[in-house]
Amino acid sequence: MMDNLPSTPGKFKVDKPQYHHHHHHPRQLILRWHHSPLLSKLVVWSILAIASLLAFFLLSPTTPNSSSTSGRRSLRNAAPWGGPAWEKRVRSSARVRRPGGISVLVTGAAGFVGTHVSTALKRRGDGVLGLDNFNDYYDPSLKRARQALLSRAGVFVVEGDVNDGPLLHKLFDVVPFTHVMHLAAQAGVRYAMTNPSSYVHSNVAGLVSVLEAAKSADPQPAVVWASSSSVYGLNSHVPFSEVDRTDRPASLYAATKKAGEEIAHVYNHIYGLAITGLRFFTVYGPWGRPDMAYFFFTRDILCSKPISIFEGPNHATVARDFTYIDDIVSGCLASLDNAGKSTGSGGKKRGSAPLRVYNLGNTSPVSVSHLVSILEQLLKVKAVRNVVKMPRNGDVQFTHANISLAQRGLGYHPTTDLNTGLKKFVRWYLDYYPTSSSKKGSSSAI
Predict the structure, then answer these.
(1) What percent of the chain is predicted at pLDDT more than 70?
(2) 3-class DSSP assignment, residue 79
């Protein structure tokens, strides 16, 4: 079973103890006991002591591995979740506080997009419950700071893994969620070359775990989940449209997201789950991920460290469709509001349900070199540039979103240009990392 594995690196695992069995012929044992009465008594007492311990652990109702008839672990013995106080916090956080509001389980709630989506939902009076495992793919203290932000907004974040089936089922038992916003995933293209199994476990098995819990829930929630623009892979048709080929991924990360889209089709087809996949295009902004280029470029520029700017073959420009977080949030909320209804009951499909995929981008690709120029102006520090050939690590040369489908279906209209968005990010960065303001030149930044 995979339930006890972390969805991403940073969690511990328990190694199974090794048992060594020594076999002795019965006659040999009898002879030894006959010739050594003291040894015989010691062996007998040892056997009795071991048998007593085994009986105690096997018969004890509080054994950690014991389970109920439903196959779920005992909540009272399964810290850190479970119990009346915990259930009260869960219900309070998920309580809808506006007429016609929705109740949403947000996985990956302490992540970049998850934090912004959760607070936006809470602000408008929806019920929100977060779930996050706080892994250390990047600095967990940033996730804890986001958790504190969510707590002040009234959002409780359950610490747990999306692959913990009993936990997911318990959450659906406690709260009749109308929607799931599934954002938990192993992010990043390059890290897959170091830890590929984390992507399969989190992005594939984790999605299955969430869909399993959703299809078994009564009522079934509608599901919105984060796919990625990476699924377009080696597609060269510009701008990227939802009808373009997505069967040539350039990275394992992209392959797991494409697998997720196919898995979503299965659960929609068999179980009647209403599922919407969102292909995000290079999201940036305050409280962002430190593994993203705009984030570590800012850090390194302030520290006067050289930054590497990739270029394609024959000095071709590398460009991204940078999309500001507020625009992504508007698309996420619109997707929830327009998700439609799941049609299953008790895991049985009663009719067809919506299955959709949307691009959420900005439609205005910008070269990475120009991104650096904007950061130089905002930080008032000259970057030490090091132009290098793009390595074969899964990155693609450019991304460009066609958002016409999202415009028609969701009313999605991004409004934030890169200059404006980066200015907001830099302001947050200098506030969150105050020591950066004492770096060379940054005291006068923005």
Answers:
(1) 79
(2) coil
